[in-house]
Amino acid sequence: MITLGIIGIVAAMTIPTLVTKYQxxxxxxxxxxxxxxxxxxxxxxxxxxxxPYYDYDKNTKGADILQKQAQDMAELINGAKLCDSTKDxxxxxxxxxxxxxxxxxIGAISNKTSILLPDNMIMWIGFYHWIxxxxxxxxxxxxxxxxxxxxxxTENNGILPVANPAHDTRPCTLSDLNSTDPYLGxxxxxxxxxxxxxxxxxxxxxDFLNQK
Length: 212
Fold this sequence. Notes:
alpha+beta, 6 helices
């Protein structure tokens, strides 16, 4: 009985850690896959003679150009389909910032059309050359820096993960757990891909995200 009790105590202490590491690995793997999907679609567009940066510029072509960009990218991703986020519950956009406070600033800087991927990911195009991707669809936590990540199309038609302090200085920190910054978490994608803690030593997916 004593031995069983010890085993139970050890299990109670280690199982949550193992579950956290397992979930973290899933997020990390999905983000790397998402980055690969975006890069491949971008490469195909370039091969077709399309400039992902200049030919889909809202400032010169109007808001409808983002709809065209979503359609073009969806056609280049196997099994992808378009979804209207204002009408279809499968691609609704209800996100909080990294600290879990307030509403993330998304609606005003992106088009309504999403791209549903076969493995439940959701991708959509933002104004000013942003690309958003939700790694697990409508499943929680629906937080920037967790399951929602952002990329930027560069002037040379490359795709870069958004980082802090680069790319409009979008923040990535858990130094203020009460922060209501509507952009908090946007700058985490590069750290997440590198599995690097932006607040200090350790890795991103376990040490950083579990500070909260």
